[in-house]
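Entry for the shared binder. Reason: the reviewer on the internal report wants the predicted structure included alongside the sequence.
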Amino acid sequence: MRIDDQAKNGDASSVTEGLQSDSQRLTDSNGAGSRYRPHTEKGPRRGRPRTDIRTIVDAALYKTRTGITWRELPAEFGSWQTALRRHRQLIASSQWDEITRTLAERDLLQ
């Protein structure tokens, strides 16, 4: 059973409560604010709102720490397909290098 399936079955607690502490999540208070924005098109955007870049970075770091596949990503990070696609976009645009370098300088990578 996948972790996100457990959440659908009515488990009231956070599915990753025991796996990842809040101190490992990126927040404004630990200096990892929303500085990085992927380059987007100009003009109004249609459809579903984009997933916050901080959530994508958290998802990628969580995946790295736990050694899971993208498909096993907990539901609290949103769609695994979106996380994978946006992570690849960050890598292609060299923003991922900047993000990890900044996090390493602030001792936020573990």
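Summary line for the report: Residues 10-18 have pLDDT under 50 and may be disordered.
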